[in-house]
Amino acid sequence: MFMEQGIRGFFRAWAPTLIGYSAQGAGKYGLYEFFAVRQRLYKGIIPLWGRQIPYTMMKFSTFEKFVELTYKHVIPTPKEQCNTPLQLGVSFACGYVAGVFCDVVSHPADNLVSFLNNA
Fold first, then answer.
1. SS (H, E, C) 55-74
2. In the record, which residues are listed under signal peptide (predicted)?
3. Domain total for the chain?
4. Measuring CA to CA, which residue among 73, 69, 99, 67 is closest to residue 86?
5. How many CB atoms lie within 10 A of CB 65?
């Protein structure tokens, strides 16, 4: 990418990323004190990691694999030749399926974190 677009390629489409991360940060950290997350988090930090790490690994690996399989077996057109709404639809559908797999993997540790936080 750097060879083709130079330094501008690294900053391409920065506005949506900035808006998305800003909204996420505002919600996550803006309500941090209100919900007393800081006090409850440390009790279950190891189970929290036991949930979050497999969840994240499963999310990225299954999403990428399902996108690849969708363009290989379901949509006969290469991704680069598909229009934007179709690409977004594929991403949405594959993200949904990846979310199901994430839930299955992280559910036991999620229950443990909930139990520790309620104790």
1. HHHHHHHHHHHHHHHHHHHH
2. none
3. 2
4. 67
5. 14
- Residue 12 phi/psi, 5° resolution? -65, 135
What is the reported pTM? 0.58
Boundaries of domain holding 10: 1-35
pLDDT for res 9: 62
20 and 68 inside one domain: no
CA distance 78 to 4: 21
* Long-range CB contacts (within 8 A, 24+) of 6-10: none
Q: Chunk the chain into consecutive blocks of 10 residues (it has 119) and report each block's average pLDDT, rounded to whole numbers.
A: 64 67 66 58 69 84 92 90 91 88 79 71
Query: Closest by alpha carbon to 40, among 105, 118, 98?
Result: 118
